[in-house]
């Protein structure tokens, strides 16, 4: 069994590898990746049998990997947060382990994997259905409810230039320069929107690709994005996200 570990904390990756080795001594570790960008490059030339994947990586949520390359194997998610469960099982997930991961958790994940393999190994039609499910295009929000005076109004996401977290409140900035509160977290909004349209450039801002007018170099190897809005703060792309962000911008 070929195993890939996607984890940006080296100590956690080493501990997970030790737990896996204890349970599956014959396991072959084909690699350890630390970011979305690195994982995408790895999967374009390698095909592991199963992936143990953290969700919050240095350059964003690992769900973005599934929109940028084919992931044709089961994924066991390992994370410190329980709010991504639904998204995980929409992204090839067969198990969801909360950190700190325990040996019995990993054992249970392998037990489930073995049962699935045993149940379907002689049923080609079912296996094809599973593969189709794994590669099925996910559905994303096309409309967001925003607060307007004492009411909520639906706004198509293509009318929203960006979402920004300000003083612990999430705001939607429309292309017509209107600003409205959205009663969701930025993480929830990121996981519900099409990653081909919106990219999280830093911890506070989720940006619509159609809002990008210009990208300029900034200090400490960061970038600044110019948009057609009147904003009080610069839109700065964090240093670790510059390379994947530029790659995302160039994608069709």
How would you describe this protein?
The modification 4-aspartylphosphate is found at residue 54. One of its GO terms (molecular function) is phosphorelay response regulator activity. Keywords: Phosphoprotein. Residues 2-114 form the Response regulatory domain. It holds the Pfam family LytTR. The structure is a single chain. By secondary structure, this protein is α/β, with parallel strands linked by helices. It folds into 2 domains: 2-135, Response regulator (Rossmann fold), CATH 3.40.50; 143-250, Beta Barrel (OB fold (Dihydrolipoamide Acetyltransferase, E2P)), CATH 2.40.50.1020. Helix content is 31%, strand content 31%. It contains 8 helices and 17 strands. The chain has helices spanning 10-23, 36-43, 64-68, 85-89, 103-120, 124-135, 186-192, 242-250, and strands at residues 2-6, 28-33, 50-54, 56-57, 60-61, 75-79, 93-98, 143-148, 151-156, 160-166, 169-174, 179-182, 198-200, 205-208, 214-217, 223-226, 235-237. The strands form 5 sheets. The chain has a 5-stranded parallel β-sheet, with helices on both faces. Strand 6 (75-79), helix 4 (85-89) and strand 7 form a beta-alpha-beta unit. Helix 1 packs across helix 5. The longest helix is centred in the middle third of the chain and has 18 residues, at 103-120. The two termini are 35 Å apart.
């Amino acid at each position: 069994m070929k195993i890939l570990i996607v984890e940006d904390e080296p100590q956690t990756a080493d501990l997970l590898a030790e737990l896996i080795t204890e349970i599956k001594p014959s396991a072959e570790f084909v690699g350890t990746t630390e970011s979305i960008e690195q994982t995408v490059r790895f999967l374009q030339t390698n095909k592991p049998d199963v992936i143990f994947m953290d969700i919050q990586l240095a350059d964003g949520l690992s769900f973005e990997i599934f929109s940028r390359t084919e992931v044709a194997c089961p994924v066991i998610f390992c994370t410190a947060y329980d709010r991504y469960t639904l998204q995980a099982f929409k992204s090839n997930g067969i198990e969801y382990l909360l950190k700190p991961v325990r040996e019995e958790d990993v054992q249970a994940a392998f037990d489930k994997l073995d049962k699935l393999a045993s149940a379907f190994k002689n049923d080609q039609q079912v296996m094809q259905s599973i593969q189709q499910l794994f590669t099925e295009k996910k559905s994303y929000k096309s409309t967001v409810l925003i607060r307007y005076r004492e009411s909520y109004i639906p706004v198509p996401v293509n009318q929203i230039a960006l979402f920004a977290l300000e003083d612990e409140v999430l705001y939607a900035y429309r292309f017509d320069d209107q600003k409205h509160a959205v009663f969701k977290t930025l993480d929830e909004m990121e996981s519900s929107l099409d990653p081909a349209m919106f990219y999280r450039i830093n911890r506070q801002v989720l940006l619509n690709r159609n809002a990008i007018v210009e990208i300029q170099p900034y200090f400490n190897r960061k970038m600044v994005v110019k948009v057609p809005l009147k904003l009080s703060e610069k839109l700065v792309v964090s240093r670790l996200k510059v390379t994947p962000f530029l790659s995302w911008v160039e994608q069709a």
